[in-house]
Amino acid sequence: MFFLFALVLVSRLFFVQVVKRDIYTNSANKQYIATASENFHRGSIYFTTKDDQLISAATIKNGFQATINPKILADAETTYEKLSKIITLDRNDFLKKAGKKNDPYEIIARRLDSETAEKIKNLDIKGLSVFSESWRYYPAGELASRVLGFVGYKGDSLTGRYGLEQYYNAIVSRDEEGGFVNFFAETLAEIKKIVSGGTERGDIVLTIEPSVQSNLEKNLKKTAEKFSAEMAGGIIIEPQTGKILAMAALPSFNPNSYSENTNLSVFMNPMVENVFEMGSVMKPLTLAAAIDQGKITAETTYYDKGYVDIDNERIENFDGKAKGTASMQDVLNSSLNTGAVFAMQKLGRENFLKYLLAFGLDKKTGIDLPEEVPGMLSNLIKSPREIEYATASFGQGIAVTPIAMVSALSSLANGGFLMKPYVVREIKIDGAKDKKTEPEAKTQVIKKETAEEMSRMLSRVFDEALLGGTYKMERYSVAVKTGTAQMIKEGQKGYTEGEYIHAFSATRPPLTQSF
Description:
Blueprint: H1 2-19, H2 21-30, E1 34-35, E2 45-48, E3 54-68, H3 76-83, H4 91-98, E4 106-112, H5 114-122, E5 128-137, H6 145-148, E6 150-154, E7 157-161, H7 163-167, H8 169-172, H9 183-195, E8 202-206, H10 210-227, E9 232-238, E10 243-250, H11 270-273, H12 283-292, E11 301-304, E12 307-310, E13 313-316, E14 324-327, H13 328-333, H14 337-347, H15 349-358, H16 378-382, H17 386-392, H18 402-410, E15 417-419, E16 424-429, E17 435-436, E18 441-444, H19 448-465, E19 479-488, E20 495-507
Parallel strand pairs: 1-5, 2-8
Antiparallel strand pairs: 2-3, 3-4, 3-5, 6-7, 8-16, 9-10, 11-14, 12-13, 15-18, 16-17, 19-20
């Protein structure tokens, strides 16, 4: 019995001092001054630097709020005069709140530091109170805001809204502490939860590197400003693992002041929640499928008239010009729509669709972010017309999410393996073994040799064709493809004039050594 009592006691100390340390620390802080209903506790979210240092992305910040009770506040004017020497107050707003004589609780200032709170408390004015409060805080401001989401009210409860805060809400949320619970019963219940695997509350560590994320967002901002773009987005992925190093969409928002945004669409993450016609970044997948089946090689040629007629429709190259005899390398270098159609026809419609489905363009990738949507390939699956397949070969007429396209293109730099993308590297579970995310290969879509051939071809695009090879580097190879797609008319058939989606894909081929 003595041994059992000691075991329970030690276990209880472990839960108090380790598992629930933050909760009891907050409870102690609340005793300093009265407690406000806004106090809550929530697990942290961390970015990860290249040297594996954790940088806070979302945490809890503690402070104080000042309130008045108009029912018992005797002299509103004098109270205002004294308070205004400590904090900035709008006189009219303060007096308006003080005039609500039937209201016992009006907040006049929030998120005050302890020094300011102590000064207000020392005024010792009846009807003026200071309460402790805590709130979700994002130290990096707008950085990765569309990935993180925020904590906001849903009904009467604070909960994760959008992004990781929503997706991992069950992990980072905490039960409210309150009421008396039997010492032994609570301890044994906690032990039972962990032993049975029924609890996974803790902090989450992201794959996102803050310096890479910051650099991506800065460059996206410059690009958006240069071209007066309505939106800009980007994803940086590690092809061999599916690890997301950075993901951004602009315009962004500051999750510390999300309520200032009237356009709710800014909270969504279009990299996983929206589908787009991605244009010519699709061509490497079309050519990869045809090469994988042995239907073409990089040297295979066709005669380019500048257009091709299919189902009484004419498909032209982006510039309308004919190139004459052209190889499959030329198709990528000059982004020839007619060449992509040629490769699709050599492959055959049935096989072409089979590869698109294998690349996962019609499915959700399974990334750990909320509201992911699948791609839209129904026009290929349902339509018997060849024109649908022809336009799909160069990225028009089918719509996919950016994350699905990035995932598919990454397989070209990963021996043909399609990896499941993820943004959470590790869950640090309270009082139990941490849960680490292991890279997951979904399938091998194309052969290793095909992937290497495509990497060579796309590297030549960078070295020879992209702005005439201006950016060619002596000791590095980069496999790239540009894409331009027309914008669909909203709610109508056809495309808008003068509006486009521009895309750019770049990978580091694994077969090339850097020095």
